[in-house]
């Protein structure tokens, strides 16, 4: 995850360390207002939401969602639509880049 487009990350070293052929790069600012699906352990969609803020180091995510029982959320599926608080789509993004 990056806060700055000019960040230099040692992707080749990461790939070697984890023994993988690609890594995922996500620009943190691109996550704001991103539409997400909120799924339970059985991969059933509990509802939708948008990302307000994400703190990957602290392990916290702040969502805007009508889902009441957040303890049932097991996975968050990233979409591509950007949705404002008024419920209107205002753009699209591709937050994940495979390197």
Walk me through what this model shows:
- The chain is 8% helix and 41% strand.
- The chain is mainly beta.
- The protein has a domain at 28-93.
- β5 and β6 (89-92) form a beta hairpin.
- The longest helix has 8 residues, at 11-18.
- It is globular, with a radius of gyration of 15 Å.
What tags apply to this protein structure?
99 residues, mainly beta, 5-stranded antiparallel beta sheet, two-stranded antiparallel sheet, 1 helix, 8% helix
What layout of secondary structure does this protein have?
Blueprint: H1 11-18, E1 24-26, E2 34-39, E3 45-55, E4 60-64, E5 75-83, E6 89-92, E7 96-98
Antiparallel strand pairs: 1-7, 2-3, 2-5, 3-4, 5-6
Written as H for each helix and E for each strand, in order along the chain, the element string is HEEEEEEE
Q: Report on the biggest sheet.
A: 5 strands, antiparallel
Sheet-strand content, in percent, reads 35-45%
| Helical content class | under 10%
- Please report the total strand number as a whole number: 7
Overall 3D shape: globular
- The first-to-last residue Cα distance is 13 Å
Our Rg estimate from Cα atoms comes to 15 Å
Helical region count? 1
Content-based structural category: mainly beta
Query: What value does the average pLDDT take?
Result: 86
Order of strands across the main sheet: 4-3-2-5-6
Q: Which runs of at least 5 residues are low in confidence (pLDDT < 50)? A: none
